[in-house]
Amino acid sequence: MVKSKMNQRKVKIGIIICDRYKNCAGGKCFKSISEKAGAFDIYKGQDVELVGHTTCGGCPGGNIEYAPEELKKNGAEVIHFATGMVVGYPPCPYIEHFKKFIETKYDLRVIVGTHPIPEKYYLTHQELNTWNTPESLDLIEAVLTKEKIRMSYN
Ligand code: SF4
């Protein structure tokens, strides 16, 4: 038991959140890391270490240019964009650009999403017809989850 735990690989991640939620205490993101829910589902069976957490710096995201360097120096292998980026009103219009930039400039994997979409946000965006294209559906794929799970992140 102890041996298998010692051999378990630890994944180091960084999180970048939408600056509109800069006062967020991170409750849902930390809960989902612990539960391996939403976008963290892919780490089931692995330990996850959060090596840095920051905001985009405010529209149009000036911190995206520099923050990944610091996260990478701390060992981050994957950058997660917080779910707030895709469920804010409106969702961040720069997500795809940010993702491509970080992957290209810093050679880091970028995953859009952290915790499962809370059900109340899901329902409002359904009414707003926000996710009406294959591209927008791709952006929420990792955090859409099931209704029961979305309810537990409401
Ligand atoms: S909408 Fe996008 S660029 Fe604007 S604050 Fe949020 S994440 Fe940053």
What does this structure look like?
The chain is an alpha/beta fold. The protein has a single domain, classed as 3-Layer(aba) Sandwich (Rossmann fold). 40% of the residues lie in helices and 16% in strands. It is built from eight helices and four strands. A four-stranded parallel beta sheet has the order 2-1-3-4. The longest helix has 12 residues, at 95-106. Bound molecules: iron/sulfur cluster.
Shape: globular
Give the C-level CATH assignment: Alpha Beta
Average pLDDT, all residues: 95
Number of domains: 1
Q: Walk across the major sheet and give the strand order.
A: 2-1-3-4
Q: Looking at CATH, which topology would you report?
A: Rossmann fold
Oligomer: single chain
What structural class is derived from the secondary structure elements? alpha/beta
Put simply, the count of helices is: 8
Main β sheet profile: 4 strands, parallel
N-to-C SSE string, H for helix and E for strand: HEHEHEHHEHHH
Alpha-carbon distance between the two ends: 35 Å
